[in-house]
Amino acid sequence: AHAEDVGTSLYFVNDSIQQVTFSSTVGVVIPCPAAGSPSAVLRWYLATGDDIYDVPHIRHVHANGTLQLYPFSPSAFNSFIHDNDYFCTAENSAGKIRSPNIRVKAVFREPYTVRVEDQRSMRGNVAVFKCLIPSSVQEYVSVVSWEKDTVSIVP
């Protein structure tokens, strides 16, 4: 070990961040999951390796290495920014490390209705009911119970 290497390190603070889903009406702040001693320079990139740049009122990388995506209207949606893979690097005298890719995806708040598909069956036979969830929200909504006249029939 060299004298200048003593006390230097790079490490992941949280390398389990794999996906960040956020509401377009709220925005999101994503800290770089890496750090170091001495303080590391933190940078964000697209998964393609391209540097990201600040877009006023849309995307900003703070001096502390935090990536911020601001709230936006549906008309301002840009898949290059709001639905993409990012990664962060940390670099200091100990070297350079790269976080795993982090999937960043914006979702829109929109009204939706969940309904039960109509079924017909003769008395004494089995009827199978299906809960219909609009495809635009399907991956964010799950059925937790079935009710009849506000009484839970399936826990």
From TrEMBL:
Transmembrane segments: none annotated. InterPro entries: Ig-like_dom_sf, Ig-like_fold. SUPFAM superfamilies: Immunoglobulin (SSF48726). Gene3D superfamilies: Immunoglobulins. This is DSCL1 protein. It comes from Steatornis caripensis (Oilbird).
